[in-house]
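Justification of resources, computational component.

The compute hours requested in this renewal are based largely on the per-chain cost of generating structure records like the one below. Each record pairs the submitted sequence with a full structure-token output. That output is archived, and it is also reused by downstream analysis tasks.
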Amino acid sequence: EKALLEYRRQADEKKTHAEKVEKRMARSSIHTEEVSGLDKDKKIISGEEQERKIMGYEEAMHKIKEATGVSDIQEVVQRFLLQGETQKHLEKLKFDNEKSLLRLREEKAKFQAEFENMKYSGEAKLSSGQRILEEMQGKLEENESKLFQ
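The structure output for this chain reads:
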């Protein structure tokens, strides 16, 4: 049923479009009949050119309407205007996020450097503590051996 309704809608749109073209052609032919001589040939050519332009504009408008999902011209204009505002807002968000990203990268580098400093100083403290522990164990063993002798 949905497909049938869609086909009917498309057929109605094509029928309406064809009626508009026929009306324009009728107006164009009435207008060209009124003109005579060389002016008549010029008017027919310009009338045909105008008709092609009008058809092109109608096709473009039809595509715009399909892409935007609205049928009223004012709504289409409003959507394009809002799209510009949305783009400005998104560009501002992009700028803010890039700024935040840069700040976070700098913080990460700072913390990484701090970590490396702590890691190496911790190893130095550990190795000196290990050395002191070994010395003390040696003295303890020495004292214990003296004590038992």
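The CA atoms of residues 105 and 134 lie 43 Å apart. The mean pLDDT is 78.
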